Structure prediction request, 520 residues.
Amino acid sequence: MSNSNQEKSGTESDQSKQQHAHVNRARHDATLLNPGLPTLYRLNTDRTYVDGTDGKVRRWTYGKRDGNKQNKVILMVGESATGKTTLINTMINYFLGVKFEDGEFYQITEEDEKHQDQSQSQTSEITVYEAFAEENPTSLTIIDTPGYGDTKGFEKDEDISENLCRLFSDKDNGIHYLDAVCFVMKASQNQLSGKQHHIFHSFLSLFGKDIKNNIVFLLTQSNGERPTDALNAIKKAEIPCGKDEDKKLVHFLFNNRQKEERDEEYDHVLKSVWRLGDESMNEFFKLLKEENRKSVQMTLDVLIERRRLETCFSNLKDSLNEKETKIKELTDDLESIRDTNGKIERGEEVDLRKRIYLKVKVPIVNQWWWNSKATCCSVCEETCHEWKCCMAPDPSWCWVMKNGNCTACTKKCHYSKHVKENKKYEAEDITREYYEGREEEVKSQLEEIKEEKSLLLQEAYTIIMNLSEIALKVDDAFTLQHLDFLIPRLKEEGKDEWIKKLEDLKKAGGAQKNKGLLIA
Prediction:
């Protein structure tokens, strides 16, 4: 044997030893599930929660954590029953170096997709699976996201969005970059279901535009042939994703039969299936180069803007309804004031109920001495006794006083609150001056509230436009649900340019719905 062949054989032998060291170690750190062929094990994991998520983001770690290892981070998205769970376990087996000949299969998950009740809503918890192996220079992190767009609708969708935001923003225990976002679907599909469209497009609306080329498709239940139908369905759904040098969608084929009970007659089929998975995993992990990984910062910005949008609209509807009610009240008031001012200017009689009088104190002039003084209340600002009042030496002696209190003034004040002098109160008609001042006051209030309303609408519009700048998708159901409320109010503001941009978003979302991309 030549030296080169000896070196090659030695290298392969070393790799084989390392792989079997992985498997032997895994076998001793796992729980037996089924002693058949293949023998099924569940890896023993250390289970914790990411801080600040109230148990909504779980972290299951296999092996001894080693922060010095280069880590590969993969996020998995897919509808239930497409084989996502089995695919996660297939990745783990590839990472551990498990071969078909070993007759073993390891699970890191607990769910069994075959026995899931698909009619029931799945958990909104996100599970982060971590795998460390001493002989492997890299570590593996898989983020498993629950089914998006289930029977609980937007409430659960927003829970998932909030949980991802917390996972990506946690400085100490969070995820700060992604190597790949994997959409899982069956290779045999010739079109995406309404729920799949909703899941994929809803998740796209959570990510920043910079993640586009890191989105790949993992196609399950494949027979190894070119998945023409599935690729056409993806193109028709207009899902932004990575493409290779030939502009073809980046995808990998899997069969998901690794756990199937083996027998001699069909052993070659299952071996072929395993080889297909190994080859695809090998190509997939080659793609995960360090220079291609993306920070989650832009995605985190998208998640934060979505949170701002939801908070904004939650407050916006109540605030706008309140301001629109006040605007109507002030508009009606202003119309009434202007009508009264018009009548005054034309010299027409004004309704007595609308006339405004001001109490003023004026001197008593051109009267006989017995009518030259009057008793007035300084509290009520009223003339209590005027004619022939000069006979009383002070207010306490005035004819209108009884038991020390006035019988004439509004509040029946004590005589000490009264004065007796050559002045009296008169009502001065200030109707014109009042309504002119009131008109300016109401106009000012009206403009102030209209400005506040405009600022609220501008904030909502700005957030949506900010999302359109950084998010992969903004014509998703989450955003579209607010446009029917926002657009009519912007028309009242005369914001034609803004309206056009929002209507373009709405039109794009409507086109998706017609294709079946969005579900109710």
